[in-house]
UniProtKB/TrEMBL annotation:
<dbReference type="GO" id="GO:0008270">
    <property type="term" value="F:zinc ion binding"/>
</dbReference>
<dbReference type="InterPro" id="IPR013763">
    <property type="entry name" value="Cyclin-like_dom"/>
</dbReference>
<dbReference type="GO" id="GO:0000995">
    <property type="term" value="F:RNA polymerase III general transcription initiation factor activity"/>
</dbReference>
<dbReference type="GO" id="GO:0017025">
    <property type="term" value="F:TBP-class protein binding"/>
</dbReference>
<keyword id="KW-0010">Activator</keyword>
<feature type="coiled-coil region">
    <location>
        <begin position="219"/>
        <end position="246"/>
    </location>
</feature>
<dbReference type="GO" id="GO:0097550">
    <property type="term" value="C:transcription preinitiation complex"/>
</dbReference>
<keyword id="KW-0862">Zinc</keyword>
<keyword id="KW-0175">Coiled coil</keyword>
<feature type="domain" description="Cyclin-like">
    <location>
        <begin position="97"/>
        <end position="181"/>
    </location>
</feature>
<feature type="compositionally biased region" description="Basic and acidic residues">
    <location>
        <begin position="300"/>
        <end position="318"/>
    </location>
</feature>
<dbReference type="GO" id="GO:0001006">
    <property type="term" value="F:RNA polymerase III type 3 promoter sequence-specific DNA binding"/>
</dbReference>
<dbReference type="InterPro" id="IPR000812">
    <property type="entry name" value="TFIIB"/>
</dbReference>
<keyword id="KW-0804">Transcription</keyword>
<keyword id="KW-0863">Zinc-finger</keyword>
<dbReference type="GO" id="GO:0000126">
    <property type="term" value="C:transcription factor TFIIIB complex"/>
</dbReference>
<dbReference type="InterPro" id="IPR013150">
    <property type="entry name" value="TFIIB_cyclin"/>
</dbReference>
Length: 356
């Protein structure tokens, strides 16, 4: 185990003190039987990363994962187990430790120191605004370096920064948007380099929770207002319908009788049902035909009298319009419908006594 620790530690360029501390951690793990059922390389990498966390060296677990070609989550699981079982408090790494390393990899040339100092200043501001709590230090370093590079006229793209700090693009953009919400982002470059704002911002998660609460309250208030407006709209609609019904022109003369008959028929059909409505329709048709029959008889008598009078006076007969039968064909008569007897009975009722 000591031989492998020295081999891997030299690749990470760790000093002898760190290597001795890692070997002590490895002996404690062996004494507690934590190496059983686990690969030796995983345990050694976890011991070395535990030293990096306690000593504050600028190394990430991804560096060990790249050297050993092992999944970083497997190494992280072993590291958490060792830290818990050995009762070692592994402090969070200060993001400022990674800035010189990442700045050197981004190749700023002569302005490497200036860009690093600006990025460190940005990181200090982010830490004061509670952006570092619960977040990976590499994401904060990437955002700070990207802003610092733009401030010093270096056009580094997001992909170039991601390739160096090894975080996802969405993570980097989230850090940038969180920094954008702080008052420091509203300062100019000269003001930022000279002025230190004393006030601290709320953590981004707290502000996000407050926004959600406000949105929920606004949605509730809007739903209540919509319900009130819907009630008012429905009442206005009822009033408008009533006013339109009252303002309709009422039928006069002959059309009033038809409207009354229609309303009576509608009411009767709704009350008595379809069968009784059909009977009423038949009765109405019979009455209508009876009226046509009486009108036809009356018209014939009038025409005979007028013709006799005209011939007596020696005048020419007036030209009559063409008969309706010639236009529409043979019309139904009382004889064709077989209701002549009923018509005669109706006529004979006039001679009967009113009591009968």
């Amino acid at each position: 185990g000591k031989r492998q620790i020295h081999h891997l530690g030299n690749q990470l360029q760790l000093n002898q003190h760190c290597l001795d501390t890692a070997f002590n951690f490895f002996k404690m793990a062996v004494s507690k039987h934590l190496t059983r059922g686990r690969k030796m390389t995983h345990v050694i990498a976890a011991c070395l990363y535990l030293v990096c966390r306690t000593e504050g060296t600028p190394h990430m677990l991804l560096d060990l994962s790249d050297l050993l070609q092992v999944n970083v989550y497997v190494l992280g699981k072993t590291f958490l187990l060792l830290a818990r079982e050995l009762c070692i408090n592994a402090p969070a790494i200060d993001p400022c430790l990674y800035i010189p390393r990442f700045a050197h990899m981004l190749e700023f040339g002569d302005k490497n120191h200036e860009v690093s100092m600006t990025a460190l200043r940005l990181l200090q501001r982010m830490k004061r605004d509670w952006m570092h709590t619960g977040r990976r230090p590499s994401g904060l370093c990437g955002a700070a370096l990207l802003v610092a590079a733009r401030m010093h006229d270096f056009r580094r793209t997001v992909k170039e920064v991601i390739r160096v700090v090894k975080v996802c693009e969405s993570t980097l953009r989230k850090r940038l948007t969180e920094f954008e919400d702080t008052p420091t982002s509203q300062l100019t470059i000269d003001e930022f380099m000279k002025i230190d704002l004393e006030e601290e911002c709320d953590p981004p998660s707290f502000t996000a929770g407050q926004k959600k609460l406000k949105i929920q309250q606004l949605e509730k208030a809007l739903s209540k207002k919509l319900e009130d407006f819907e009630g008012e709209i429905s009442s206005y609609q009822d009033e408008i319908e009533i006013e339109l019904e009252n303002s309709r022109p009422k039928a006069k003369g002959v059309f009033a009788n038809f409207t009354k008959d229609d309303s009576i028929e509608d009411n009767m059909s709704s009350i008595l049902g379809e069968e009784e409505a059909e009977d009423e329709e038949l009765e109405a048709a019979a009455n209508h035909l009876n009226k046509d029959f009486y009108n036809e008889l009356h018209e014939k008598d009038r025409l005979k009298k007028s013709e006799d009078g005209e011939w007596k006076n020696g005048k020419e007969a007036t030209v009559r319009p063409p008969a309706l039968e010639s236009l529409l064909g043979p019309l139904p008569t009382a004889a064709s419908l077989g209701i002549t007897e009923s018509i005669k009975e109706c006529i004979s009722t006039k001679d009967r006594e009113p009591g009968e």
